[in-house]
Amino acid sequence: MNVTGHTRRPASIRDVATAAGVSYQTVSRVINGHPSVRPTTRERVLAAIDELGFRRSATALALASGRSRAVTVLTANTTHYGYASILQGIEEAARAESYAVGIGVLESADEAAVAAEVRRAAGAGGGLIVIAYDPAGVKALGAVPAELPVVGVVETPASTPDPGRPWVWTDDREAAYQATRHLLSLGHETVHYVAIPSSTRRTSARTSGWRQALREAGAPEPRPVQGSWGPAEGHAAGHELARDPAVSAILCGNDDLALGVLRALHEAGRSVPGEVSVAGFDDAPHSAYLTPSLTTVRLDFTGLGRAAFALLHGVLEEAARIAPHPVSVPELVVRESSGPPPATT
Amino acid sequence: MNVTGHTRRPASIRDVATAAGVSYQTVSRVINGHPSVRPTTRERVLAAIDELGFRRSATALALASGRSRAVTVLTANTTHYGYASILQGIEEAARAESYAVGIGVLESADEAAVAAEVRRAAGAGGGLIVIAYDPAGVKALGAVPAELPVVGVVETPASTPDPGRPWVWTDDREAAYQATRHLLSLGHETVHYVAIPSSTRRTSARTSGWRQALREAGAPEPRPVQGSWGPAEGHAAGHELARDPAVSAILCGNDDLALGVLRALHEAGRSVPGEVSVAGFDDAPHSAYLTPSLTTVRLDFTGLGRAAFALLHGVLEEAARIAPHPVSVPELVVRESSGPPPATT
DNA sequence: GGTCCCCATGTGACCGGTCACAATCCTGGC
DNA sequence: GCCAGGATTGTGACCGGTCACATGGGGACC
Q1: Interface contact B256-A285, CB threshold 8 A
Q2: How much is the average pLDDT of B125-151?
Q3: Which of A256, A288, A293 sits opposite B286 (nearest CB)?
Q4: Which of A55, A122, A288, B301 is the most exposed place for a label (fewest CB within 10 A)?
């Protein structure tokens, strides 16, 4: 058949129509599964579609119908475990509904840069999902024009949830609370905390869960050490904490920080969990294989991504509207890095 | 000013035209920076654009002009470090050229599922980048219709490179060669290898680089242990190797496998690097903080992603055409996990 | 046999841009 | 004062679909 070398224009519904001897509208009906098309006609059209290798242009569809069946995910990072997993969850859910998924990386938290990126994403049409775990993400979420359908993946829900722009989140407070109680229950006098940066000026959910557990137990409240996201910062924080012989339990804002802390303790010659217990957050894939393996709190990021998409889907299509949102339940995973404090002589 | 509650249709160039008292074509000229527009006119149009909050619809642009300025990345995974970094590199380069980036995950390597995913991606318009490090990716690359612009990120270039569908790759053979030579130079009799799955039936580049180094050194060639991608498989492979007292050096197909191997050796009571040396591949962010920190070969995945985009850009726009492709140079990073073999008594 | 309706199909306009070409304006040269 | 010709601007068609409505062809029913 058509094996001309040069790239030819892909077949349109009018080409198919001509080939099948019907009008373009009939072809449109066939692709959309409209009931009132005579079976013989449908057959002919399908044959023509097959022969010409016709594929409906998503672009034209979006333009003509308004519904674009696309989501753009705005995120500051694609390589960190948590972010990547959320993205994976979104993609999974989107694919099931045959939505296209776009990504935009917020490389800087600079006001203008963020605004530009939001504009780009908005131009793509369709809905938006903003991962607002960090300053760049939070700014982006704030910069989304009011008329755009958007769902935020946030650290903590603000006091006033807007029905038109829903949010999803995990119960970080509860997670930190559980982890801290676990460490306290092992007999530690108190638990130190290496924090991830808070996305907002307010105290992060993780910090407040940690603090609540300490208060309930009447334990002293040491000042949280401000970390960042990666192992390097955890390493620095760990060195600082290793100098204080009173420190016997450390909770870290994520598993990467915990990794750095473990390394620093090792370098300082303090054994884990013999002298110091360490717990992380997220249950990244490698955490189970560290030596010592890491006690951590597992969060369902993939599920979070799926939920975010489901909500957005509800905003975009009335029919798919769902309840404001199910919070996933964090799960404490106890491994080797936590144990009773050293016996005081 | 328009603060009517209901979502109103975004402004089109004709709305802007009316507001500015010019024709829609003039507006089009202004957005595209066409030279022959009188400054005063341009001014008026720009004012109208600003006032109406006009944003040019990417959809309409793509439909009317044919050029879609979009890339879709097909990949089997978004969470693994290598994949995620490539994606990040692609996004970075694409953003610089103001291209939109879409992703499609190949969840199964099943022929039909892969074909469906390719079709979806093709429907999005624009170019394709396929990460073909695994069976699903390889199948996807093969399933891309001939008329679609596509760039493959592959493990090893095949014998016959097609000028119309370029590839990028890292020099995995060289990387494995370097790592193996490093271990041999420390005095190990030979080096065992825990392999990542090969994307094709042929021997992988990493395997052949490893083998070449052994041959050149006249070292015995043990059978590679077939691993997979994650730490769990590395763990299993590590247990197996730990049973053989002759094993004193292990090269792993990636850092995740190496992590599992380290853990298995620890469990078996064999010290690293005292009794056994271990080296990985990729230099994942956590590898430097493991205990012992991991000797590995750093590969520039982000750069690979950028190169992939650059090539695709060249295919899509004549003007941006570039040379077939620069291979990034792998870099050996020696850390604690490798050292001389134990002294034989 | 005529009317009413539903089924199957076709026609024209439109979505928001671009492209090719026509029309108008302005300026310089003679 | 008139005409050529570049600078500006406008008009109509088109990209590949959808939507709203019009049209023709059978039964079913009276």
Answers
A1: yes
A2: 91
A3: A256
A4: A55
